[in-house]
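Re: [help] complex structure
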Amino acid sequence: MSTPQTPAQTPDIAAVEKGQEIGRRTVALSRTDLIRYAAASGDHNPIHWNERFAREVGLDGVIAHGMLTMGAAVDLVTEWVGDPGRVVDYQARFTKPVPVPDVASGAPDAPTAELRIVGTVGTVDAEAATVRVDLAVTLDEAKVLAKSQVIVQL
Amino acid sequence: MSINPALEGREYPPAEPFQVSREAVREFATAVQASHPAHHDVDAARALGRGDLVAPPTFAVIVAQRAEAAVVADDEVGIDFSRVVHADERFTHHSPILAGDTLHATVRLERIRVMGAGAMVTTVVEVAAEDGTARSTVTSSLLVRADDAEEDA
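Output below.
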């Protein structure tokens, strides 16, 4: 999952244009990924791992942590900018839950939800040497994050 | 129970300091499928001029949520956690969080917006390194839904 690779060079701001696509990727999520995120983040809210509890609080079933979606969505920006330390601001609104149903049979770590992420340059501030990247994050064509904006220092 | 808007501006004592280990950075990066080598490989981080592994952009949520727990646990505020939906989150990074940091976090109840029988509660957590260097400001809003009885009323 996290094979070290050669980091990309930080882009030259003079070559960055508003509207430019900086990358896209898909993130597949399984119940195992939710458990892993719960452990790594310390967020053990049972709506992210217990079906009965999720239904009792009015959900259709277990959903991914909003912060897992937000955390996974930003990696393509980190990769583009070449250094995670250059991500200076990141915000998002959670607009729609991401259900991660149990698999009907077989291995419990088989993904049952797939997020699609597309990053586009929203603004370029040459004076401050910053670029705002807007992330479109969707599940089955529906937006799950709104105003998902990342400011990077070039 | 309803939310008490009079407590806007309340500050809480600092949360227990959080020591950032390399393992915690790698584990969090793996959990959010963050593959950049600076999260995993010390040499790769140092090649970028960073002193140690660089935490992913949302890593500060760990310390922020620990600090925010004081607000949720504050009976005078009146948040029923089973009725909470995470509405939004923002990280403003002043300097990168690195493995080896000891992070200190303080939370402030920034805003309470009453919405019908429910409320939007916004907290701001300031995260700093051991020597006081500002690392991150984490702003988070929780939507506290009205309970069903109040919705029907």
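The helical segments of chain A are 31-41, 51-56, 66-73, 75-81.
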